[in-house]
Specification:
Low-confidence stretches of chain A: 1-8
Pfam families (chain A): TBP
Mean pLDDT of chain A: 93
Helix content of chain B: 55-70%
Distance between the termini of chain A: 22 Å
Distance between the termini of chain B: 83 Å
Protein name (chain A): TATA-box-binding protein
Oligomer: heterodimer
Keywords (chain A): DNA-binding, Repeat, Transcription, Transcription regulation
Number of strands of chain B: 0
InterPro entries (chain A): TBP, TBP_archaea, TBP_CS, TBP_dom_sf
Function (chain A): General factor that plays a role in the activation of archaeal genes transcribed by RNA polymerase. Binds specifically to the TATA box promoter element which lies close to the position of transcription initiation.
Mean pLDDT of chain B: 93
Helix content of chain A: 10-25%
Strand order of the largest sheet of chain A: 2-3-4-1-5-10-9-8-7
Number of domains of chain A: 2
Number of helices of chain A: 4
Structural class of chain B: mainly alpha
Number of helices of chain B: 10
Order of helices and strands of chain B: HHHHHHHHHH
Largest sheet of chain B: none
CATH class of the largest domain in chain A: Alpha Beta
CATH superfamily of the largest domain in chain A: TATA-Binding Protein
CATH topology of the largest domain in chain A: TATA-Binding Protein
CATH architecture of the largest domain in chain A: 2-Layer Sandwich
Shape of chain B: elongated
Strand content of chain A: 25-35%
Order of helices and strands of chain A: EHEEEHEEHEEEEHE
Strand content of chain B: under 5%
Number of strands of chain A: 11
Low-confidence stretches of chain B: none
Structural class of chain A: alpha+beta
DNA sequence: AACTTACTTTCGAAAGC
DNA sequence: GCTTTAAAAAGTAAGTT
């Protein structure tokens, strides 16, 4: 078990004994932001030429920021969805930049934006291969349909996340609301696969 | 209390009528796919359980019936892809797949993992290959699975590659194009699987 | 045959059809 | 349910060169 509080991404892939250790990386954070005010999307569309806005197709206005590289969907209710951030810091920085930019272009913003993380997507590597057939037969709440998708889909109860596990030992974790849940899920699935003897050397 | 009884009776009648109609649809699909009659019983049992759990509400009967047939084929080890079945209904592959996942999850069905060996005879017979090729292809697939080469790969592609190799070994060569068409995968997939099997199983093909 | 691009699966929120 | 966004995993597909 890794040292408490330390992020898996900072932990070495292998201990001195040579035992494989999982590594994880946050790939995408999806968050909602509330500005608590109505917005005139047509005004934003006229002021900022780089946005996309097709209300017939989708009610949100698409705003892309280069640094941090995120995409925001802005709605007339003053709520938005920000996707693409690789860290909480990037997310906060991006929201500040977007609000600052709107103001700079003459769109008045009154209150402080309220940010809520809705989903965290991460990739991880157990650094050992997984016997998917064995895992599929012994792991609860899992689905493995190689005709349709090469990964085993596992719905974990606690933390409540979904994992896409591949035979290479690499995986995708999604549905997490806190970064800690990602590391918790990776450690938990690693221990469980070991217990089920569904781990094999690569 | 009479009202409740009537409502319950009405609901039961409604479900029974739905199941009757589904039985006709399931029979149609099974005949169109040339599946053994025994699959009907399994598919009907699955559909009935799904209907009784209320999984049919708001979903097309056609797609749910197709999903039940696909699940029945899986349980009975009959090699039919979800596309083979989905192309016979208007909902499309995506909806049939969604219904199938719903059925498996809600009824907590333990689906056996698709065995590529099951696809072999279907492909070899379409190409008029000998039983010897069939037997050899199965051996290759069993060895491949033991070595962990089949995880995550499309069983049809694996079967196609094993047959390609077995046919070459036994002097009954078929082109990758012919085999790919019979298996319902692309030539690129047959080639990729074939290369990996030959390399990792140390298979030596006859010269030329 | 290589490359490129693109689609399969998973997740969540937004507003409206 | 759908529409739109982003991102990863590994396999398969399709179009070019």
């Amino acid at each position: 078990m890794p040292t408490g509080g330390q992020k898996l991404s900072q932990i070495e892939a292998r201990s001195e004994a040579g035992e494989a250790r999982p590594t994880a990386k946050i790939e995408n954070i999806v968050a909602t932001v509330s500005l608590d005010q109505q917005l005139d999307l047509r005004l934003i569309e006229r002021s900022i030429l780089t946005v996309e806005y097709n209300p017939e197709q989708f009610p949100g206005l698409v705003y892309r920021l280069d640094e941090p590289k995120v995409t925001a969907l802005i709605f007339k209710s003053g709520k938005m969805v920000v996707t693409g951030a690789k860290s909480t810091k990037d997310l906060i920085e991006a929201v500040k930049k977007i609000v600052r930019n709107l103001k700079k272009h003459g769109i008045p913003i009154y209150g402080r934006p309220k940010v809520q993380i809705q989903n965290i997507v991460a990739s991880a590597n157990l650094n050992v291969c997984v016997d998917l057939e064995r895992a599929a037969l012994t792991l609860e709440n899992s689905m493995y349909e190689p005709e349709q998708f090469p990964g085993l889909i596992h719905r974990m109860d606690e933390p409540r996340v979904v994992l896409l596990i591949f035979s290479s030992g690499k995986m995708v974790i999604t549905g997490a609301k806190r970064e800690e849940e990602v590391y918790e899920a990776v450690n938990k699935i690693y221990e469980k696969l070991k217990k089920l003897r569904a781990i094999r050397p690569c | 209390r009479l009202r409740r009884l009537q409502a319950k009776l009405r609901a039961t009648t409604s479900i029974e009528k739905n199941i009757e109609q589904a039985a006709r649809e399931i029979t149609r699909l099974i005949e169109a796919l040339n599946l053994p009659r025994s699959v009907i019983d399994t598919a009907m049992m699955i559909y009935r359980q799904a209907a009784e759990k209320g999984l049919v509400r708001g979903r097309s009967l056609e797609s749910m019936a197709a999903a039940a047939v696909y699940a029945a084929c899986r349980i009975r080890g009959i090699p039919r892809s979800i596309d083979d079945i989905a192309e016979l209904v208007k909902g499309g592959r995506k909806e049939v797949a969604r219904c199938y996942r719903l059925i498996v999850r809600e009824l907590r069905l333990r689906m056996p993992i698709v065995d590529p060996v099951r696809y072999v005879s279907r492909i070899t017979s379409a190409l008029r290959l000998s039983p010897a090729v069939e037997k050899r292809a199965a051996e290759i697939l069993i060895r491949a699975r033991k070595m962990g080469l089949t995880a995550g790969k499309d069983p049809a592609g694996l079967a196609a590659a094993a047959i390609y190799i077995a046919a070459l070994e036994l002097g009954e060569r078929r082109t990758q194009k012919e085999i790919a068409a019979a298996a319902g995968v692309t030539e690129v997939t047959v080639r990729n699987r074939y290369k990996e099997l030959v390399q990792k199983l140390n298979i030596t093909l006859p010269a030329q």
